[in-house]
Design goal:
Layout (H helix, E strand, L loop, with lengths): L2 H14 L2 H7 L3 E6 L17 E3 L6 E6 H15 L3 E8 L3 E2 L2 E2 L3 E9 L5 E4 L1 H4 L4 E5 L5 E10 L4 E5 L9 E2 L10 E6 L8 E15 L5 E8 L11 E3 L4 E9 L13 E5 H14 L5 E2 L2 E6 L1 H7 L6 E7 L4 H5 L6 E5 L2 E2 L6 H5 L7 E8 L2 E8 L1 E2 L3
Length: about 375
């Protein structure tokens, strides 16, 4: 029997309802049902073969994707990016406490080479407060790394080594990501299992997570690819073998105590690219600067201290000759709004301020001695 006749014979059995034959074949193909033959699919991942479209009934189509091709794409992506992934080990000096000297501690995470000049992208929280940093390559060799610059608010940092560069990862376009797209996390969970690979999907984009420090990290990519402590700073990769995000945090428990699984979040590579470029060029990220020390006000804080507002920031200190000082702001003032945006549980002071740039003049709504007033401030540069 010719191949063409054999194919027609198999399709006929499928259409009639040959469930046993279909069950035997289902291990090698994944069948998706499109509701209209005019429906257009978007976001096709590069380097994957075109899907085969089988004839169907009732104005529907069966889109058949060979799972072997998907597995091959995952393997190729890991082989492409894996050598550029490193384990980052930071030594944090001990502190003198009431009970004595605590001794040095270590923090471990992951990172990825983004330049042939030896620059490594990782998370700020992996290396924060460190005295010494080492990068351990996928082959087990290691080199000392120096800190180029770090940014608390994006939770990103750039390191540099001066020796051999094992590989450099290709950076993709995180703006093109869609929910449901397959992604791969590569990193060193618990610091011991180097270059561990986990696979999942983009669960959502544009997520915002409150850090608990008076600001949130916005625009995050949510994924269900398994991420554990030690994966921080490692790459999230698409099927084209491009880094599309930097893994940064997981959520295990909700405020109500409910245990959650598969809630990982990553910083879009477009954001990371912009931040890393500034860190490499300037050693810092240019952000608007007012020159105040402050404490966030929440309804709970307001109730404890009998404050006149539910949300805002309480100014505890004003730096001499800073934009805030020059505008007349004082310790004890409460900022409740920036321009027409009122500070509340969804509009933090830092995130609202970061919508502006150095040189912009903003109008602050403040409470001073129980009375509302407005103050105009021309913002400076955080690096000045």
């Amino acid at each position: 029997m010719s191949f063409k006749r054999l194919l027609i014979f198999i399709l006929a059995i499928l259409l009639v309802g040959g469930s046993a034959l279909f069950g035997a074949m289902a291990g090698g193909v994944v069948v998706y049902r499109l509701m209209s033959k005019n429906q257009v699919t978007t976001g096709v991942t590069p380097n994957l073969p075109s899907a085969q479209v089988l004839p169907a009934r009732n104005s529907t189509q069966d889109l058949v994707v060979n799972t072997t091709d998907i597995e091959t794409a995952i393997t190729a992506a890991v082989q492409n990016v894996g050598p550029a992934v490193v384990t980052v080990v930071a030594t944090i000096p001990g502190q003198q406490t009431f009970f004595g000297y605590t001794g040095d501690a270590t923090s471990s995470g992951s990172g990825v080479f983004i330049s042939s000049d030896g620059y490594i992208l990782t998370n700020n929280h992996v290396i924060e407060g460190s005295q010494q940093i080492q990068a351990i390559f996928s082959d087990g060799s290691q080199q000392d790394a120096s800190l180029v610059g770090a940014d608390q608010y994006s939770d990103l940092a750039v390191l540099k080594i001066s020796g051999r560069i094992p590989a450099v990862a290709n950076l993709g376009n995180s703006d093109a990501l869609n929910p449901g797209e397959t992604v791969i996390a590569i990193g060193s969970p618990l610091g011991d299992f180097k270059n561990t690979v986990t696979v999942g999907v983009v669960s959502a984009t544009g997520r915002s997570i409150d850090t608990g420090s008076g600001y949130s990290i916005d625009g995050l990519i949510q994924t269900d690819a398994a991420i554990n402590q030690g994966n921080s700073g490692g790459p999230l990769v698409n099927l084209a073998g491009e880094v599309v995000a930097i893994n940064t945090l997981i959520i295990r428990n909700s405020n109500s105590g409910t245990v959650a699984e598969g809630l990982g979040f990553a910083i879009p590579i477009n954001t990371a690219r912009t931040v890393s470029e500034q860190l490499i060029q300037k050693g810092y990220v240019s952000r608007p600067y007012m020159g105040i020390s402050w404490q966030p006000i929440t309804p709970r804080v307001a109730a404890v201290y009998n404050l006149p507002v539910q949300y805002g920031v309480y100014i505890t200190d004003v730096a001499s000759k800073s934009p805030a000082d020059q505008s007349g702001l004082q310790a004890g003032d409460i900022i409740t709004g920036i321009d027409k945006i009122s500070l509340d549980d969804t509009h933090s002071y830092i995130n609202t301020l970061f919508q502006y740039a150095a040189g912009d003049t903003i109008t602050l709504t403040i409470m001073r001695n129980g009375k509302q007033a407005e103050v105009h401030v021309t913002l400076g540069d955080s690096g000045s």
